[in-house]
Amino acid sequence: MGKIKTHRASAKRFSVTGTGKVKAFHSDHRHNLGQKTQKRKRKLRSAQILSPAMTANVKKLICK
Questions:
Q1: Which residues pair with 47 in a beta bridge?
Q2: Domain membership flag for residue 31
Q3: Per-residue CA distances from 61 to 31, 37, 57 (Å)
């Protein structure tokens, strides 16, 4: 029986916490930063916890 391979692109972008939640970084923090407010950029710096629906999809990809 074959094994399911880890989706490497997803494994590099998401990580699973000890309690099973999936952690990811915010988008929109790459370019055009001059026109975004300091408050918005500060909020985008921290990681986010994905919703339960997205968590199920990501966990299938990264096999955890």
A1: 25
A2: no
A3: 28, 34, 7
